[in-house]
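Q: Structure tokens for this one, please.
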Amino acid sequence: MAASLIELQKQSYKRVDPLARTGNKTEYSSEATTTMKTVTTLIAIAAAFTLWQSPANAAITTALAPDVAASVWQEGEMEYATVTFNGKELVTFQGISGTGTAGVKAEDLACKLQALLEDKKLNVNDLLPSRFGDTVGLQLHGTTVLSFDLNDTMATGDTDKDKVTQAKEMSYSLVNDIRAAYGAPLLPQALGGKIAENFSTNISRRLAHAGKAVSSFTGKASWYGPHFHGRRTSDGTIYNQDGMTAAHRTLPFGTRLLVVNRNTGESVVVKVNDRGPFVGDRVLDLSRGAARQLNMMSAGVVPVACLVLSSAE
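A: Here is the predicted structure, written as tokens:
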């Protein structure tokens, strides 16, 4: 069903020579407008039907199925094409008027994104940002499934930022827009900088093996070691300073966390087995083994982003 609709969209999407011009505004025939609206409606209905059929996504879908649409307009000698997701602008492509390049790129992105969302096997918790240079993208199970070149788009937001930084931020924004539409937890906004650079080869690999993120939080983490080694922790087990564990004030014992050092992008998966820390605004007290994995032993305290991977076992 998804394939046939995508094919329908490709066949129906067509450039129409302007019938009239008023200043820089280009008017298109009612036939083209009607066709685009019909195709968008069909795709939205199909997405709703597909998501309704899919038990895997039943718990994390919204009442209305995500709607992907592409629209094209002209201003002077330039052509612009915007891809929207649930009415929110994701990206706007630009090109020279009359070439159709912006429209083609927007259509291609919209079709691929719609096909991805219509996949019955998709679990949006598995979607992660994928960024290489100026390329914005999404990855699924370590494979890039959707991408586009930021250089083909209009600069948005803080134009003082370089293209690589904008590509990182747009990749995260794209992932979180989709996660939000399905009611899935958002990736922490703190996942940027060094973390974004290492995500595809580091954090995503750990997530693929450790499980799905169900919530997230950020803050400062410290570590504790020799003085407590061999003593009982709050859950009754013996503390091993070289293990991969952590103390948290309230999370259930057995909860697994993906902890990311926001200064370096390095990450580790730990299990909560103790209570604390009770110092200042720290959110975690890590074992020496976990601290070594995060390269934070000498620093002592570092800013972290944490993804909660599971409830207590």
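A few notes: Residues 1-64 have pLDDT under 50 and may be disordered. The chain has two domains: 2-181, 211-308.
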